[in-house]
Specification:
Helix content is 33%, strand content 15%. The protein contains ten helices and nine strands. It has a six-stranded mixed β-sheet with strand order 2-3-4-5-1-6, with no helix packed on it. A three-stranded antiparallel β-sheet has the order 8-7-9. A hairpin with a 4-residue loop joins β7 and β8. The chain is globular, with a radius of gyration of 26 Å. Keywords: Chloroplast, Metal-binding, Oxidoreductase, Plastid. It holds the Pfam family Sod_Fe_N.
């Protein structure tokens, strides 16, 4: 490719360009002290490198030549080209968790979504009669989808958090208890994906093997655990979630409640299953009877198969018992 370099100055600036202090951003963004660069491709134009003072400008696909006419072209033999900036590899940074930047970047109109909507791992009528198809259509098709669309809208306005996996995004956006604007929608998307996978057609009954032994060890019996889970769900004030989690430090299982969108992964707990206690999760099928809703979940919907797979995976990170001494 051939390259041309343009610049546009917002305020008088006599500070010399120093190429020794650079900061890289997402393969597109380079800041040099008070100068910012961004590499982009334009429709019907070859690749360009644009330089601005104090504020980065991204040319979106479809930009006309007339918009570029106001910029002054720097000859290709300028000192910028001598420093080989046009061919320099741009690496992604590690973003700080406790602080967010405001890059002022805009994405092209061709990008319409950052995260996609995941379907439940079963048909929407597969949980009937315990959870109706109408509830799934409303809960997944409207509420879950709405949180995802709101999250993507947040990221389209400021993409500093773009590129994380969903669980990483939730942890970063929580920001040590001072959440960013993206947190509620990101956490609700993650919570709902986890909730759908916590159920299965023909679920309920009781867990088997190691998970059952761990429940009996930490709660006394499976019956005691079941009653504890239903009680926590029935007495939750307002909207929120009930979880069976594995506490990393304590190396034990606990039933925990979270309010609104908060999820236990922000505390480094390992969730094994959850129950959505927002009103729209149960009002169509059970009105305001939260106790019956939680009881039906435990007896007919919960997927102990998935919960067992989750605790087996967690054992790679948490030592749940005494070390086994090999027999010669």
């Amino acid at each position: 490719h051939s390259y041309s370099v343009t610049y546009k100055r917002r305020t008088p600036c006599t500070k010399p360009l120093d190429l020794t202090h650079t900061h890289f951003r997402k393969n597109l963004f380079v800041a040099v002290e008070n100068w910012k660069f961004c590499a982009c491709s334009t429709f019907a134009l070859h690749s360009c490198l644009h330089l601005t003072c104090w504020k980065a400008v991204v040319l979106e696909p479809g930009i006309g030549i007339s918009k570029m006419a106001s910029c002054t072209t720097i000859p290709i033999s300028s000192p910028l080209h001598a420093n080989d900036l046009s061919q320099r590899m741009i690496n992604s940074p590690t973003l700080p968790l406790q602080k967010r930047g405001h890059l002022g970047l805009k994405r092209g109109p061709g990008i319409v979504a950052y995260y996609g909507l995941r379907k439940p791992p079963y048909d929407l009528d597969a949980l009937e009669p315990y959870m109706s198809k109408k509830t799934l259509e409303c809960h997944w098709g409207e509420y879950h989808r709405g949180h995802l669309e709101a999250l993507n809208k947040h990221l389209s306005r400021n993409d500093v958090l773009y590129g994380y996996t969903m669980d990483e995004l939730v942890k970063v956006a929580y920001n040590y208890g001072n959440p960013f604007a993206e947190f509620n929608d990101a956490a609700q998307v993650w919570n709902h994906d986890f909730f759908w996978e916590s159920m299965q057609p023909g679920g309920g009954d009781s867990p088997q093997l190691g998970l059952l032994k761990q429940i009996e060890k930490d709660f006394g019996s499976f019956t005691d655990f079941r009653e504890k889970f239903i009680e926590e769900a029935s007495t939750l004030f307002g909207s929120g979630w009930v979880w069976l989690v594995l506490k990393r430090k304590e190396k034990r299982l606990e039933v925990v409640k979270t309010l609104n969108a908060v999820t236990p992964i922000v505390w480094d707990d390992i969730p094994l299953l959850c129950l959505d206690m927002w009103e729209h999760a149960y009002c169509l099928d059970y009105q305001d009877d939260k106790a019956t809703y939680a009881t039906v979940f435990m007896d007919h919907l919960v997927s102990w198969h998935v919960a067992t797979l989750r605790i087996l995976r967690a054992q790679a990170f948490v030592n749940l018992g005494e070390p086994k001494i090999p027999v010669a």
